[in-house]
Amino acid sequence: MTKEQILENIRLKQSFLCVGLDPDMAKMPPSLRGDLFAFNREIIDATAPHAIAFKPNLAFYEVQGARGYAAFEQTVAYIRDHYPDIFIIADAKRGDIGNTSRMYASSVFDTLGVDAITVAPYMGEDSVSPFLGYDGKWVILLALTSNMGSRDFQLVADAEGTPLWERVLTTSQQWADSSRMMYVVGATKAEMLSRVRELVPYHFLLVPGVGAQGGSLDEVARHGITRECGLIVNSSRGIIHASSGEDFARKAAQKASELQAQMAQLLAYYEIL
Amino acid sequence: MTKEQILENIRLKQSFLCVGLDPDMAKMPPSLRGDLFAFNREIIDATAPHAIAFKPNLAFYEVQGARGYAAFEQTVAYIRDHYPDIFIIADAKRGDIGNTSRMYASSVFDTLGVDAITVAPYMGEDSVSPFLGYDGKWVILLALTSNMGSRDFQLVADAEGTPLWERVLTTSQQWADSSRMMYVVGATKAEMLSRVRELVPYHFLLVPGVGAQGGSLDEVARHGITRECGLIVNSSRGIIHASSGEDFARKAAQKASELQAQMAQLLAYYEIL
After folding, report:
1. B3-22+48-57+83-237+254-269 placed in CATH 3.20.20.70
2. Rounded Cα distance, A57 and A140, in Å
């Protein structure tokens, strides 16, 4: 999927919402008996009208072993078949030596057929570049994450005063431009989005942490929005587990619709038409 | 598995060899038709007498989707059933926000039943600590990797002159001691193992990069060995794909046996008896 297609979908749906498909068996209605795909199918149908992207995180599938991995495959195939305009992100945070990253890239792009994968930067260029060799596919590189542990290494400054997360942004721009790379920047650090935008003015940012993790959508837009929107904002638990009862899909649709309405207002306010 | 049990196996087998189970379908004999588990079973039986650990890398299984994931599960179960003294490492390089890392930890320790997982440090303490809550299970944290890209971020020094990989070693020692944490240090950086040993004198190190990636076993031992051995040295391609013909298992046994013989000499030389 190209950057232009993503922007077209944002305009069409008046939304830059990504729904995180991280189903927690303990929060699913008992009638589903832990069937991840059955749960996802209802969530997808309920929220697709309000979203431009889905982001299943592999951890929530691998916990069921090969059966869970199959549910991941079914989920991707279902979205692809029924909602071909939706951008599918495998949230995997992979990254390994070159020949291993090539295998991971083939896993997600050839075997699964998703549009994008999240990648961890610790091992540097040759761990990331194998994911960049696919036309129309995207790397979403971790830069500044929304969790407490981001302080341990990401915020540490080098001899020139540059924190690691900024170095990740500047160094990785030598590997690919904004047509095949995006960055993860957590919403709990919204005020730092202004600095992010100085460094990567044209890249899309995947922003997790709105909702359950406490980030504010207005703040994210204020500091991070661009003329091409440039934002894909993710909400997982806040949508898919808004209810743990039989009404989970209806409640998920409601939460997604509320976020979409806020996003439509922001797109109008910032004149991204 | 405890540190004492690992050391006992090292003494018993006179080996600190880990065989990397990273089967590349293109390098397997055609008769196996890409059957990862069938390949692994022969490799495991052929090399287990010479090795104390096996390290399957998930990338090489996920490339076949759910079927490959099932082959990973079968591989782990086969080792567990037939060679219960072998230390099994899921080479996964995972790491995510806390509730997601908890899912990954459950995936590898509860569902798969391996002894250890490799984890990437970029997201900091709360991305690693969920893996540390299992008795007898291990985190093997990436510190200094063997690839070119390690220069991009790992070798960058902070304002006090401390490179990132050293900070990872020192900071992470506050999270767990040498009874449940190990570190990945690439063999292509053998001379830096002396510095590693100043910082983590008692931890086991998982050392990839001997063989195909060019590291020297003698150099690794000279700079990295401790009185409790403290080393698990991995070889993947150099053993499992020593031959791409029908004699692959015999050739793998031969390569593993050669490395084991070298290791026995080193254990004797350094008086680890």
Report:
1. yes
2. 13
Alpha-carbon gap, residue A180 to A105, rounded angstroms = 14
Residues of B in contact with A153 (CB under 8 A): 121-122, 124, 164, 167-168, 171
**Region A3-269: CATH code:** 3.20.20.70
- In A, minimum Cα distance to B159 occurs at A159
Say how far apart CA B31 and CA B207 lie, in whole Å.
33
pLDDT digits (tens, 9 = 90+) for B144-169: 998 999 999 999 999 999 999 999 99
- Please work out, in degrees rounded to the nearest 5, the angle formed at the alpha carbon of residue A208 by the alpha carbons of A89 and A159: 105
Residues of A in contact with B65 (CB under 8 A): 69-70, 73, 107, 111-112
CB-based contacts of B94, cutoff 8 Å, min separation 6: A59, A93, B101, B104, B108, B117, B118, B119, B120, B131
pLDDT tens across A208-266, in order?
A: 988 766 678 999 999 999 999 999 999 999 999 999 999 999 999 999 999 999 999 99
Report whether B225 contacts B272 (CB < 8 A): yes
- Select the residue of A100, A111, A159 nearest B158 (Cβ to Cβ): A159
Active-site residue, B93 included: yes
Kindly report the nearest CA distance between residue A142 and chain B, in angstroms: 9
Instruction: Give the helix/strand (H/E) hosting B206.
Output: strand B205-207
